What does this fold into?
Amino acid sequence: MFTIYHNTRCSKSRQTLALLEESASKSNQEVTIVEYLKTPLTRETISTLLTQLNCNAIDMMRIKEAEFSEQNLKGADEDTLITAMVNTPKLIERPIVSNGSHAIIGRPPENVLTFFN
It folds into this structure.
């Protein structure tokens, strides 16, 4: 089973979803779609994804968003960055796909295919 943290307005997220659904259907696996702008992620979910991504919070963030600068997040510590993602979901890089033990960021969308190699 896969979970995609998805933004329907993002072309890369839509492309990743299409690749994921196509590949998952070939292997009879389910895909759960979480529209994280409508259903914001909890601190616990973000922490789990960071572990699965094996990265720091800054690597999971859209640092070019105006909200990043407005919240003075450059150089902030992990806890502050995670709090910012909980409070401002727009700052979360998209899409993120998890298989429950490992996650990838779908930029480029073809990254999702690593789950099927």
Summary: The first strand starts at residue 2 and ends at 6. Strands lie at 2-6, 31-35, 96-98, 103-105. The radius of gyration is 14 Å. The helical segments are 11-26, 43-53, 66-70, 78-87.
